[in-house]
UniProtKB/TrEMBL annotation:
Residues 4-181 form the Bacterial bifunctional deaminase-reductase C-terminal domain. This is Dihydrofolate reductase family protein. One of its GO terms (molecular function) is 5-amino-6-(5-phosphoribosylamino)uracil reductase activity. InterPro entries: DHFR-like_dom_sf, RibDG_C, Riboflavin_Biosynth_HTPR. It comes from Kribbella sp. HUAS MG21. The lineage of its organism: Bacteria, Bacillati, Actinomycetota, Actinomycetes, Propionibacteriales. One of its GO terms (biological process) is riboflavin biosynthetic process.
Amino acid sequence: MSQVVIDISVSVDGYVTGPNAGVGNGLGDGGDALHSWVFDGTDADRAVLEAAFDATGAVIQGRNLFDVIDAPDGWNDEMGYGAKPTGEVNPPIFVVTHTPPASTRLGDRFRFVGSPGEAVAQAREVAGSKNIMVMGGGQICHATLAAGLADVLQLHVAPVVLGGGTRLFPAEPSVGAGLELIEAVSTPAAQHLSYRVVKEK
């Protein structure tokens, strides 16, 4: 059965980008260290990445991340979602925003919706039995969790303290969530932690 999975790399101190993140500097200053497990990791890291890609039927992301991806120096014709060549099957991507762009450089893979709930509802229609992956940035990941829409929280904790940047969880008080560890994979490049979100009955 399809699940909503928040899947994101994060620093030990809770940041999903370094400082000064934005178009042209998507991961912020020093933020490349968050994804070293993707590009320079071990066989175990690659197995985690492959498993997530194979399980993905649709993707949800926020507008800030979309702007980075769709910028001239963002994703290109050779590389798409999950560090995979675009020639492979790529899932549709739902971007949560109140102001859709007039056009996109990367074509019609992107669909624009007004809320996390709307994104999940539309993603379920196309994901089939595969998972809906919420991949960032931090704001949309937290909003999905806080709204009670997530089934799994999957964190790739990189061995770096960034000291600032984009938080995964806000500094101010917010909605809590119970978690149950279902898988842990430890490598020198990351601690891959998967938690089931405990739903209230």
